[in-house]
Design a protein that fits this description.
With 217 residues, the protein is α+β, with helices and mostly antiparallel strands. 38% of the residues lie in helices and 18% in strands. Bound molecules: adenosine-5'-triphosphate and magnesium ion (MG).
Amino acid sequence: MQSPHDYLLYRGYEECHNEPYPSRHNKVNMGVALNQDCFSLEYILKTAPDIDFEEKMLKFLFDNGVKVPKIMAKDEKTLMIEFLRGGTLSEALREREKSGGDFSDIAAALKDWLVSFHKVCGSFPDGEITSAGDLSLTNFTFVSEGFVYRYDFEKEDYTGSFSDDLHTLAAEILMEPCGEEYKKAAAKALLGGDYDKEKLSGALSRLGGETGLADLG
Ligand SMILES: Nc1ncnc2c1ncn2[C@@H]1O[C@H](COP(=O)(O)OP(=O)(O)OP(=O)(O)O)[C@@H](O)[C@H]1O
Ligand SMILES: [Mg+2]
């Protein structure tokens, strides 16, 4: 695979903007490049110690129809990936609340993403995958076409179940700095008939949240 530098060079692009994005452990930058016809190209450059695992996961999921950004190029430590416009789901939740909008369409798209992941994860060739791993809302985005995409597949523990993941996502929603009524409605929209109070309470306690929030009424 081409390096990020060669990817831009051979297509006649030159980087004109590069800005750091928030990352707890790695180096993540958003870049913009322009060609002579003023066409712009947006991308993410992610440098992480185990970038090979993330590359395998992204490629496997992309090839199996799960919505993840496409890999554009790679060198030893850095992946160049398609930039997905839309901000994180953490931002989307807070923005929807501020504008008085309902979260249920995003919750439904998030559940669809999780279903699509669990349909294929058992066939991952490089390790046992029974969970989607780090379900922080900052690892997801909602694009204008109405789908949820997931980025960030670092090497970590990927064991669990669909139901565990769904309740962890609901707990992540309940941990956001939003009004209690609003986030409970959003978590309820995500869980639907799968809601299990005990499971949600366990997920909240694992994330360090208030277990009392698990009562969705
Ligand atoms: N393909 C992408 N398109 C748009 N934004 C992205 C993309 N990949 C990452 N980002 C943005 O960069 C942030 C950090 O990316 P990512 O979660 O992959 O890095 P990380 O180092 O694993 O961060 P952390 O450990 O904090 O989760 C994301 O929360 C998101 O805001
Ligand atoms: Mg992340």
